[in-house]
Amino acid sequence: MIPNNQPAEPVLKKNPEKGHLPEEERRQPGLSGEADAAPGVVKPHFAGRKTMFFLGIRASAWGELLLFFGGLMAFDLTLGGSDRFADLCPHPFWIAVILMSVQYGTSHGLLAVFFSSVFLLSAGIPEARYGQDAFEQLYELSIRPLSWAIAAVLLGLLQDRHRSERSTLWKAMTAAEKRGHVITRAYEQVNKAKERLEIQVAGQLKTVVSSFKAAKELEHEDPAMVLSGTRDMIRAVISPEKFSIHTLEEQRLVAMVKSGWKDEEPFKESFSARDPLYQAVVGEKRFLSVSHPEEREILDGQGVMAGPLIHRENGNIGGMIKIEDLGFMEFNVTSVENFKALCEWAGASYDLALSLQSARADSVINQDSNLFSYGFFPRQVALMTSLGRRLNFEVSLMIVRLENPDDLKLEDQRLIPGLISKATSVVMRNTDMAFDYETPGFEFALLLPATPSENMKFVLKKFDQALVEHVHSVVPKARFNISTQTLYKAKKSEQV
After folding, report:
1. Who's near 456: CB < 8 A, 6+ residues apart?
2. What is the pLDDT of residue 377?
3. Which of 101, 114, 149, 373 has the fewest CB atoms within 10 Å, i.e. is most exposed?
4. 493, part of any domain
């Protein structure tokens, strides 16, 4: 049996077993006796060539005989004595007999004998000489055709034997070459399987450490950091090629974390309450797997496994984890059970983080980052906008977003809010305020009252310098997107 250890896709495939080999391996000549040319083997002239036959004789032989005898007959009739070269010794017809026998074999040599005899006797039977009896005359007429026939049979049989031996040797060589290719491929596949197993064994040692680090992030009080820890925990425990984490927002599952996705993926980024996947995961609190036909229909090509972020004690659901692409070797009973346990563990941590975030929504300061909390942001924006409208001063807003959180380590992600707080303290005046924004830990807002829009370029330049000094010096891989907007534009005073 030739093992098949190629990495599998989510659509699971069985390894070929005895009697179920792939078509290209079932037809190996070393296994079935065929003698097609193996790669690198040059076919001889007698193998694999399509030859045309007429009455059992090669078409090329017919043409060669016609050209040869046509040329000789034309010469004999024009320049010769029209006696079919009767006085020449050896006779020119020996050329056709010998060449046909040596080149093509017995049957072709006898055909040359037939042509030679016909053309030789076409000049007519010579009259008997004085004193010559009938037997002597018959001997003179038949001696050349008989000699040609004997030579054609002997030389043709030798050629047929050599041809048969060469064909047999070539078939044996081709079969040996193909057996060698089959053995080579089998060895390469076994070697790849061995290397993959070595990598898996080495990876298991790293998985323990990675799982421990990710588990610490699951106990974080920030929902964004919990999702980040869940992402790393999925990579360490299940090792999928593609997966996503969706959060529940206003009766919709929205993808907040997408790992391994490319630009054009068939996977949906959100699911409404009408989608069967939403109803099964959120409504029925089910764990889905493509190993069950009914659940495969619900997944509808959107993934291999899906499960709710559920807190078992209170039944709250915060979202969904979905595995889109998982290798064949990793998809087993253990990975399914680990996936269920991970969903419940992450669900409990995420529910706790949401509860703490809700409790802190009315607080003013985020103790972790020393920034104003996002719950305090709308009220301050409304207050400053009202004051600006009444006192006629501009109110500007600067939004700072971390563009590549997935490229940073967990430790670096946790440092970002504090580093941003230091950077904003350099830029801010006493009247300015820095907040957590829509995604705490990854998005931040700087409220700038009495800052005209034309002066924002100076603020941006100063903030860029602060990022280099306080953030990039500690986390050099961090990349930020900065945007500004004017919340209220001051009216120009009219001259009286």
Report:
1. 396, 398, 448, 484
2. 86
3. 114
4. no
Asked whether 463 and 482 are in contact (CB, 8 A), the reply is yes
Specify the amino acid at residue 349.
Answer: S
- Domain check: are 72 and 207 in the same one? yes
Q: Find how far residue 211's CA is from the centre of its chain.
A: 29
What is the tally of helices (H) and strands (E) in the chain? 13, 14
Domain-embedded: residue 146: yes
End-to-end CA distance of the chain: 99
Q: What is the enclosing helix (H) or strand (E) of 434?
A: strand 433-436
Could you read off the pLDDT of 395-412 as tens digits, one per residue? Answer: 999 999 999 887 888 778
Q: Tell me which residue range forms the domain holding 249.
A: 222-358
Question: By the 8 A CB rule, do 178 and 38 touch?
Answer: yes
Tokens of 431: 């009247």
Overall pTM > 0.85: no
| Token pair in block for residue 312 | 């078992």
Q: Are residues 14 and 120 in the same domain?
A: yes
Taking the C-alpha atoms of residue 227 and residue 75, their distance in angstroms, rounded to an integer, is 100
On whether residue 201 sits in a domain, the answer given is yes
302 and 191 fall within a common domain: no
Radius of gyration of the chain measured on its C-alpha atoms? 45
Q: Which of 218, 242, 272 is the last residue of a domain?
A: 218
Please provide the DSSP assignment of 378-424 as one string.
HHHHHHHHHHHHHHT--EEEEEEEES-GGGS-HHHHHHHHHHHHHHH
End position of a domain, from candidates 218, 244, 273 = 218
- Indicate the pairing of strand 395-402 with strand 480-488: antiparallel
Residues 164 and 296 in one domain: no
My answer on whether 187 and 71 are in the same domain is: yes
Give per-residue pLDDT as tens, 216-248.
Answer: 555 667 788 788 888 888 888 888 999 999 999
Three-state DSSP state, 316: coil
DSSP reduced 3-state for 264: coil
Which positions ≥6 away from 16 have C-beta within 8 Å? 1, 2, 4, 22, 25
Handedness of CA 278, 281, 284, 288 (dihedral sign): positive
Give tens-digit pLDDT for 18-69: 333 344 344 433 333 344 444 444 455 445 556 777 777 888 888 888 888 8
Give the total number of structural domains in the chain.
3
Return the C-alpha torsion angle 231, 234, 236, 240, nearest 10: -110
Residues 248 and 188 in one domain: no
